Amino acid sequence: MIDAQDTVSLVNSAIFSDTLGKGEGGDTNITTGSLTLIEGARISTAAAGQGRAGNIHIHAPESVSVSGSSPQGLLFPGAIILNTTSSGLFASTEEGATGLGGNIVVTTGNLRVFDGGVLSAATSSVSPGGSITVNSNTFDASSGGQLLTTTSGSGKAGDIRLNVRDRLTLSGANTGLLANTEPGSSGKGGSILIDPEIAIIRDGARIAVDSRGRGEGAIFNFKQVL
């Protein structure tokens, strides 16, 4: 639990809570004015055994900013997050695990995900993956920023839910909201549910559900699309 009145900033560093056996993983709760993750920094939760993974809860009334990557990754011996280099929030259920995946919940005034930053919930096992929920006034993704849920096993992928009060903006190639099922997987894909006042989607950004016939689709309720 981190409670910082003004800011929390992670630079090429990590906060992670993993469970490798029967025990449940702990939650990660961060309350602050603004949160910044850059240069490959990440907050992650993972299930690699029988225990359920913990959840990630971010409460930052001003802003949350996730951007950039680290070409070398992070060097934490024994950490499950070694193979990823993007800055982001990650919830994973590893191959062979039977514990449920954790959820990511972000509540903020403005969420920005850009320059390759990621919010990701993935399952590689028989267990369902976690979901991503964003509660914000505005949401902006650009320059390869992504929110994605994925299954590469038989477990169902989680959902993406964006409760955006005012404006959602997606811009640039490789940018978007993605709910995927990987080739060779048998799990159902997740759903994407979004309901902003205004949606701006441009320059190759996309909202996509690639479920290979096993997903539950997407629900959009845009009052104005620009």
Number of distinct helices = 0
Helix content: under 10%
Q: Give the N-to-C terminal Cα separation.
A: 40 Å
Q: Report the mean per-residue pLDDT as an integer.
A: 84
- Poorly predicted runs are none
State the total count of DSSP E strands: 17
How would you classify the helix and strand content by structural class?
Answer: mainly beta
Anisotropy-based shape: globular
Order of helices and strands: EEEEEEEEEEEEEEEEE
Percentage beta strand? over 45%
Largest sheet: 10 strands, parallel
* Rg result: 16 Å
Describe the structure.
- The chain has 226 residues and is mainly β.
- The protein contains no helices and 17 strands.
- Strands 1, 3, 5, 7, 9, 11, 13, 14, 16 and 17 form a ten-stranded parallel β-sheet that branches. Strands 2-4-6-8-10-12-15 form a seven-stranded parallel β-sheet, with no helix packed on it.
- It is globular, with a radius of gyration of 16 Å.
- It starts with a strand and ends with a strand.
- The model has no long low-confidence stretch (mean pLDDT 84).
Protein traits:
226 residues, mainly beta, seven-stranded parallel beta sheet
Briefly say what this structure is.
This protein has 226 residues and is mainly β.
